[in-house]
Amino acid sequence: MTLEELGYNIELENYRKEQNLDSFAVGRVISEHKERYVVRTTENEYEGEIIGNLRFSANSRSDFPAVGDWVAISEYDDDKVLIHNVFPRMSIIERKAVGKQDDKQIIATNIDSAFILQAVDRDFSINRIERYLTISNKSNVKPVIILNKIDLVNDVELAKLIATIRERINKVPIFAISNTSRKGIDKLKEIIESGKTYCLLGSSGVGKSTLINNLLGKQLIRTSAISVSSSRGKHVTSHRELHVLENGGILIDNPGMREVGIADSADGLETTFETIVELSKNCRFKDCTHTSEIDCAVMAAVERGDINKLSYENYLKMVREKDHYESTIAERRKKDKDFGKMVKSYIKNKNQSKY
What we know:
It contains ten helices and 13 strands. By secondary structure, the chain is an alpha/beta fold. Among the domains are: 83 residues, CATH 2.40.50.140; 162 residues, P-loop containing nucleotide triphosphate hydrolases (Rossmann fold, 3-Layer(aba) Sandwich), CATH 3.40.50. Strands 1-2-3-5-4 form a five-stranded mixed barrel. Strands 6-7 form a two-stranded antiparallel sheet. The chain starts with 9 loop residues before the first helix and ends with a helix.
């Protein structure tokens, strides 16, 4: 396998030369679990660890390697390498870290397209699809919606479901598949290109691991049986991992995400809810919140039925999350700045007291 088949390109090679990294080998991070990395090169897979300088110069966890990253490495033991540098990321899919006020969690990097997987059973949620669309659009990653478990519904029910999605989302490709009967898998394979990287996004039990096995053509990933009581599969994947298909396409699997927190996703929201954003330009007030203002074009469109009410409510909810995240970040920065001033003042007063 060549580096190009793993997704390497001329921009990355130019960076390597400009940063004088020619003496290091190049690899791609294919697995990461609690700062334990697996790096793949053209010849081998290695256990990787970051050098101390890279660790101590990191401003946040997002500066550490993530699945999908290209890295400069040096071998130091059998099947072990040191990671010296993380190459610039073409794209980053991330969400607000679960349980943390102001941290972001990288889902995957250097992604060309995101496969948003939803099962058509009782866990189906268009609101969740819009959330995944938002974090994909924010990263300029092409989204594709995949509806799984279509063997659980008839053709009429499936057509109604797709029509319901189209009422709110009309510019994103939709593929309907069954991991059980493998219906629709071949059509999905046709859009996967050699050297391109695809990220699977979805909740636990929607069938991500089984889909990867079907696309790989072998049972590489452990899967779990469907629960009779809940009609849902159990969570299997515990960490992110990259897989290369026979046709050269690259798939990144992710643990199931029950929460898809919105961070600084203004651009993503504008793309996902393009109609709402465009109509907001006709509102009477520039800072209209689209909740109670006079002459609000968005609210008027909702009342007329031009904008889906559920989509409108989901938009408002995600805007509130984004605003809360940004205000939390601003508050933390102000506290850090005030603390820095206090320390400088203390040191200055202490020095003056010596004389």
